[in-house]
Amino acid sequence: MTIDEYVEQHTAAEPDYLYRLWRATNIHLLHGRMASGHLQGRLLKMLVTMIRPRNILEVGTFSGYSALCMAEGLDEGGMVYTFEINDEQEDFTRPWIEGSPVADRVRFIIGDAITEAPRLGITFDMAFIDGDKRTYRETYDMALTVVRQGGFIVADNTLWDGHVVDAAYSRDAQTRGIEDFNDYVAADPRVEQVVVPLRDGLTIIRKL
To answer: 172-185: per-residue pLDDT in tens?
Structure first.
């Protein structure tokens, strides 16, 4: 047994609906591993349960797995506003979101969150960034304008399969985007942050 298997066996199980979504994502979509999956999904739900946000902004819906995990943890009246810039994703994702037990807590929006999220006029308590790695810094700056003081921003893939410390990937645009984002956040006096080496790296940021 690997340590990853041990951790998963000792983490609360994902609901059957999410397990079926995860399987469908990996069977039908080209980059199925982009879905958060069991362990990270349970952590996202736990964070929401701890923070108790009313409004959550997600950038990068993909198949909807992470949005549904966060929606699970919301109190009554809470809402996840999740943006997906790739309109070709809608035919797969929308039925899974609308058919889920927490459909009333998720608003799925096709569009560029960097420009469209501020137009909602909503103050968010939490944001989850999991979109285009090349624009992570711009997405983060946008999120800081719509997240309340004391609110949280969680960024996924911030270790990027270890590429952030591998010089062989120094010319890769997505790796450079993550590196730029990580350096920018580490030097940002507006926040405090901790990088959690879970899965592909998860940075938890609190707006001061």
So the answer is: 888 898 999 999 99
Residue holding tokens 């950038």?
A: 59
Alpha carbons 16 and 14: distance in angstroms, whole number: 6
Structure tokens at 170: 């120094």
Residue whose C-alpha is closest to residue 60's, from 151, 147, 154, 152: 154
Cα 205 from chain centroid?
13
Are 105 and 97 spatial neighbours (Cβ–Cβ below 8 Å)? no
Phi-psi region of 37 (alpha: psi -120 to 50; beta: other; left: phi over 0): left
- The residue type of 121 is G
The amino acid at residue 149 is: Q
Residue 109 per-residue DSSP state: E
Residue-level pLDDT at 33: 67
**Residue 111 dihedral angles phi and psi, to the nearest 5°:** 160, 175
Q: Which amino acid, 191? A: V
For residue range 127-179, list pLDDT tens digits in order.
Answer: 999 999 999 999 999 999 999 999 999 999 999 877 777 777 778 888 898 99
